Amino acid sequence: MSTDGAQIVLVTGANKGIGLETARRLGELGMTVLVGARDKGRGEAAAEQLRAGGADARFVHLDVTDEKTVAATAQWIEAEFGRLDVLINNAGVWIEGMTPLAEVTVQQLRDTYEINVFGVVAVTNALLPLLRRATAARIVNVSTELSSLQLSADTTNHVSSMRLLAYNSSKTALNSLTLMYANELRESGILVNAAYPGFIATDLNGHRGFQPVEEGARASVHLATLPADGPTGQFLGVGEGSSTADTVLPW
């Protein structure tokens, strides 16, 4: 069991993109980074890359849709560290691409929700006992401005024109989960927030994003390192026209 005092952070989907950059940034802050990835080869390579940069990084075989790997991850963290300080639910998919709303299939919805919603619940619930053992645990759920009901209802806002049925609605569901966990854990001191990284060029969007991946980690890192009196139950990130990672976005 680790006794070096470093905070332990698990980042799901951490073998590339925003997840990898988030892990790198937190490793630079002295945290022990657990690189969650479903592909063993890519996960090991990512952890090795982080170690080469000076981080204490460990690969964890974690497929958020596979209950066996979720349970095994929780068991391994308990045996190795006895607690978890930060959970970043970063893994996510955008399956339908720019398919017209009326042509999105029910199967695409199911596959999207399996990772973006059900996987978050599975991982969070499995790791809650370990998060409760931490002095000041943090949970960060990576969302998107496209999930905002308020922005979607505003026909003058560009979000209203981005009608990605499976992706947007799954992230709206994720926002709802964020609020419920925040309220459930409020008295325990565990802060739970949703992060909007900005429109980042990643594999998820075919690298159509306007910003480099280095910018995409700022919101998650900010929320992962909140002080004890930091916010909970908020949607924070890079707002439209803003360069900061602590802008409050509307649900």
How would you portray this structure in words?
The chain has 8 helices and 8 strands. It is globular. Strand 4 (86-89), helix 4 and strand 5 (138-142) form a beta-alpha-beta unit. It is 41% helix and 14% strand. Strands 3-2-1-4-5-6-7-8 form an 8-stranded mixed β-sheet, with helices on both faces. With 251 residues, the protein is α/β, with parallel strands linked by helices. Helix 3 packs parallel to helix 4 (106-132) and helix 4 (106-132) runs parallel beside helix 6 (165-185). Residues 205-210 have low confidence and may be disordered. The protein has one domain (8-248): NAD(P)-binding Rossmann-like Domain (Rossmann fold, 3-Layer(aba) Sandwich). 48% of the residues are buried. It has helices at 17-28, 40-52, 67-80, 106-132, 149-153, 165-185, 213-216, 218-224, and strands spanning 8-11, 32-37, 56-61, 86-89, 138-142, 191-196, 235-237, 247-248.
Summarize the model shown.
By secondary structure, the protein is of the alpha/beta class. The protein has helices at 17-28, 40-52, 67-80, 106-132, 149-153, 165-185, 213-216, 218-224; strands at 8-11, 32-37, 56-61, 86-89, 138-142, 191-196, 235-237, 247-248.
Please give a handful of descriptors for the protein shown.
14% strand; alpha/beta; Rossmann fold; 251 residues; single chain
Topology:
Blueprint lengths: L7 E4 L5 H12 L3 E6 L2 H13 L3 E6 L5 H14 L5 E4 L16 H27 L5 E5 L6 H5 L11 H21 L5 E6 L16 H4 L1 H7 L10 E3 L9 E2 L3
Parallel strand pairs: 1-2, 1-4, 2-3, 4-5, 5-6, 6-7
Antiparallel strand pairs: 7-8
Q: What is the CA–CA distance across the termini?
A: 40 Å
- How many structural domains does the protein architecture include? 1
Percent of residues in β-strands:
5-15%
The string of secondary-structure elements, in order, is: EHEHEHEHEHHEHHEE
CATH superfamily: NAD(P)-binding Rossmann-like Domain
Report low-confidence residues grouped into runs of 5 or more. 205-210
**What's the Cα radius of gyration?**
17 Å
Q: How many strand elements?
A: 8
CATH topology assignment: Rossmann fold
SS-derived structural category = alpha/beta
By CATH reckoning, the class would read Alpha Beta
CATH architectural grouping: 3-Layer(aba) Sandwich
**Which outline best applies?**
globular
Helix content: 40-55%
Sheet having the most strands: 8 strands, mixed
Question: Number of helix segments?
Answer: 8
Biggest sheet strand line-up: 3-2-1-4-5-6-7-8
Mean pLDDT: 91
